[in-house]
Amino acid sequence: MRILITGASGLLGLNLALETTRRHTVFGTVNHHALSTAAFTVIQTDLLAPGAVERLLEITHPEWVIHCAALANLDACEADPLLAQQLNTDLPRTLASHVARSGARLIHVSTDSVFDGLRGNYSEQDAPNPVGVYSRTKLNSELAVLEAYPTAIIARVNLFGWSLTGKRSLAEFFFNNLSKGKTVMGFTDVFFCPLLVNHLADIFIRMLEQNLSGLYHVVSSESLSKYDFGMHLAERFGLDGTLINPISVKQSGLKAVRSPNLNLRSDKLAHALGSPLPNLSTGLEHLYTLYQQGYPQLLRSMELA
To answer: For the chain, how big is the Rg over CA atoms in Å?
Structure first.
């Protein structure tokens, strides 16, 4: 298959491109973060430029499109809500419209934070209630994509893994600081279902192969606090977990509001795929194996100044 992945320098996009290029022809778009790799075809473009989406589809002729590009920094979205709307809502609408006309299949990547997190255990049937600019623009993107392409896949995710800069995921935050003997905060009252990005890549391909459509929660099969996540990672990598200070998110001083309980049910997708989604211990074990194999260094070698 010919696969087009937007946002190929991001945590999800880059790992997705590298995982899928083993069996497919992959094109990955980048904008501000240039890449140097022979693993897949890198296309540098500003997707917000007039006509950019149309030209991209004409050049690549994809059969599958996975839209990962977004403004995902919560504070950046709060600081520039117009840019957040353009990247997180308007662009997906435009892309979905053109992909629908081309006949290609589409996965649009959304977020677990479309929920306010006041109760947790959310299914795809539960009504979202976003609490910040990022979450609102991502929820609006879901609605825009399904209006333009009703049989597209909407994937709400929460993920971790190794990234291009080494600073994109919570796993890297804990690993980098604990490796240097630095103390960090670990939120005891923020719960999530983090899925290893490499596992997520495999799941996306299975979803496309099985011709799924509609809304799915694509997250780990278990939920835990961010403090516990850090402790589990420290244990697996042999790092000092006592450097993680258990703290409430309310005491953190973070500007953007965080949803406290983003425990999402993934049984709909598990039923569709015929198997449960991976749990955290499986993800951390693979993360550790990738570390032993020098995968983080491989990714960083692709970064251009």
So the answer is: 18
Q: In what order do the strands lie in the sheet with 153-157?
A: 41-44, 25-30, 2-6, 64-67, 105-111, 153-157, 214-218
Q: Is 236 exposed, middle or buried (0-12, 13-18, 19+ CB in 10 A)?
A: middle
pLDDT over 70 at 218, yes or no: yes
User: Which segments of the chain are extended strands (E)?
Assistant: 2-6, 25-30, 41-44, 64-67, 105-111, 153-157, 159-160, 184-187, 191-192, 195-196, 214-218, 224-225, 244-247
123 and 265 Cβ atoms separated by less than 8 Å: yes
Whole-angstrom Cα distance, residue 196 to residue 161?
A: 6
Residue from 11, 47, 54 nearest 29 by CA: 47
**CA 31, CA 283: separation in Å to the nearest integer?**
29
- Using alpha carbons, select from 185, 189, 262 the residue that is nearest to residue 223: 262
- Hey, what domains does the chain have and what are their CATH numbers? 2-166+193-223+263-286+294-300 (3.40.50.720)
Q: How far is it, in rounded angstroms, from Cα 210 to Cα 272? A: 9
Q: Convert the pLDDT of each residue in 105-156 to its tens digit.
A: 999 999 999 999 999 999 999 999 999 999 999 999 999 999 999 999 999 9
Q: Assign residue 61 a region: left if phi > 0, alpha if psi is -120 to 50, beta otherwise?
A: left
User: Burial code of 107-121, b = ≥16 C-beta within 10 A, e = fewer?
Assistant: bbbbbbbbbbbeebe
CA distance 152 to 48: 21
How remote is the C-alpha of 7 from its chain's centroid? 10
Give the amino acid at 77: C
Q: What is the pTM of this model?
A: 0.96
Sign of the alpha-carbon dihedral angle for 7, 115, 92, 216? positive
Q: Which of 53, 153, 134 is nearest to 98 (CA)?
A: 53
